[in-house]
Amino acid sequence: MQDLFDVVPENLFSPLASPNRRLYFRALMVLRECYRHALRLRRQDVVNALIHDLEQDLWAWTPEDEADESVAEPSFVLGRGDADAGEGAESTGGFSTLSGKAHALLRKLVSTGWAESIPDETGMDETLVIPRGPLALLEAFHSIIHPQEQRYQALVYTIYSTLRTADEERDEFMAQALHGAHERTQVLVQSLQALLHSIHLFYQNLYQRREIQDLLREHFDEFQQKVAIPTYHPLKTVDSVYRFKPRILTILRRWLADGEVIRQLARLEGGSADEEHGWEARSGVVEEIQFIIDTFESMDDLLREIDRRNTHYSRASAERLQYLLNTDRDLKGKLIEVLKALPPLTARGGRSKLLERMRTDLAWTVVRWRGEESLYTPQRRRERGVPQPLRVSRSVPEEAFEREVRELAERMASYYSMAEISRFLRERMGGDGRLRLADLHIRDMDDFIRAIVALAKADEPDFPFDVVWDDALKSVEVDGWRLPAVTFVMREGQADAVGSGV
To answer: pTM for this structure?
Structure first.
């Protein structure tokens, strides 16, 4: 097994173990930003960035803080000639200037292996190169202190969609589809493990929360927004493993049982069709297919464990919140609860005997003070009695009231009876026995009400007209009134009644 320090220098982590590790870490983050935003990483550009971002830290940095004398002592800049010696000595001549401190800080990073200095063609300038190992560490450090909220990727559906397309097409991209499904399966397992560990960490941190605000903030702002909603909820709904797992296993088992498919995938992998030389390619194809199958078949245990821990965390969070709401954690809270349980200062019939006894035994006194509300008396709430029903006014004689009701009913019957509505429509109907409401002339409110009542009576069996609805117009406007777009058609056998005026 290869060791880490076979790849990176032995003293790579020495700056992060020194007393000025915070300064060196910030300098490493500046170095990373320069690397990401510059095509060519010039030494002077990095020095300028260190001065700009770490000015206050560089002023506070003194030689006594460093045990490594190579940092405190100025050295000749590699690649600079005699013509530039004065500038190099001025820029790196100790800790008296910001430029000198920035150069010393960068020399420390170069000497420990975080960067390599390469002179350019002219020999007058230097280019910094960050090796692969330190670059990976810089990215890891940045992701730790600045975690990115990545959008959830529908890994399960992507695996199924890729395999389904490859199974239907059976073209030259089948091998790439299998590789993609294999890689996404590995990412899916890692994501599920990370989700499980995240829920476990929230569960462990739950009992360290002593304040209700901290508990609510962690549950809703941290767990819900960063774990439950972006990851756990899609995994149980739109990207459910149980939804796509049978389809994925069906496709892969069909491939595994089809020797022609295995040989085709082996040829696409670049293996030889010869049995003696192509067995390695076929073996690799079978291993990838079997890995996906085994992973999805054994994923149920991991999903059940995730559900179990999520349920335990949700229950424990609610119980912890209830505990904090109902428990007093200091002497002040307990005294408040005792005072809340005491009777009022003035009870009915005089002072409370319990308060009088407590005042004698505990030497309590009543303290009053004047404030901005001392000039006002508290508002007294009105006590409501038993509600009584309202009395019915009998100012109008009963006989006169009944007579008016009968007259109103007779008037309504005379205006809007079946005979009156039929007469109203016949008088306005043409010789063809049809009347469109769009051609109706409405003189007053009574005509409008008669037209509406005619529509309401259209379903009655003795109504002498049929109603034809116009689906295209829906409604029409007649003399400022909005009416349905219908046509009244006289039924057969009722035409003779038009001339008679019935």
So the answer is: 0.47
